[in-house]
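Q: Got one fold?
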Amino acid sequence: GRQIVYLDNNAWIYLRDEKTPVARQCRVLCRQSVDDGRAIFPVSYASVSELLEMTDQASRISQAELMDALCLGVTFRASGIVHHLEGEDVYRFLLEGSVPPSQRQTASTGLPDYFGDGHVSIPEGWHADDVTAYLAYHQSTAGSLRWMVEHFDSDQVAKNHARVNDYGALLDERRAAHRAHLGVAVVDREALAHEERVSMVNSFVLPAIKRIGPPDGDPTEIARKLIELHGKLHGEDNRRTFRRAFRTAAPALEMLAQIFARQSREVNRKTTRQDFWDVEHASLATVYADAFVSADNYLNEVLRLGDRKPPAARAQMLSSLDELTTWLERLLAGP
């Protein structure tokens, strides 16, 4: 199958502008790898949002056309949806002890659903030909980034993302309050990661219990397992339990916990608006892509997590178009 290559916004911009020989060569190889069926370059909520926020329309159109050509209408699902799926896997892992299958096949969807799970409603009584024509129209509009940049106003998009503007201040305030509560200047990194996991249990695992309910089987045995699960969530050894569960069953959530823990220790750095998009790019792509290309030096430094990464976070980290060019040359030369 195709190798999944994820580009952050800087990489898309460099390929779009073709200002250097390396960028021009890399763009050719990207296109060749797609045409030859060797690779695909999916977009995401973060990359589409950053595209739509651009104010120069010519740049928007040029980048949208490039992204359309390389993503083939494929996008990672919104992170919240993937996180809820992983929350269900954590629940099953804690309750049944079974290792869940990878969410790799379900982490992607079609471009119209880049920010959610959309459902197209067809009025009762439509003829089959009309349904087919409507779905084709729907795919040709919302299924095209070129169409989006021509119909979505950048100012309105920025207004829709107003909460992102408050992200840095809110996160810094929360982290400062946490340090003050503990009475320390720098919090232990593993303690920070654990507290992120606790928050994720509340946000994604407990709702999964309500959403999918207990498994089929003997009611007495199920009740026993639910009581056992409650003990795991609230017992004294829950730090080790959470770490194993998230590393095994929720790799994107574990990456998120580790990124936040890493950033939380930088007490003198102010969190920025761009950090929000960087985390959106990285937490999914490091797990569900084969290669992640980011020219952001700070993000690349944050992602140097070593063995703190969950085993499923196997994407090869590429920090420049030079490295991507070499990677694609090897891919195209292979069997």
Remarks:
- The CA atoms of residues 295 and 303 lie 12 Å apart.
- The chain has a mean pLDDT of 88.
- The first strand starts at residue 3 and ends at 7.
- The longest helix spans residues 189-212.
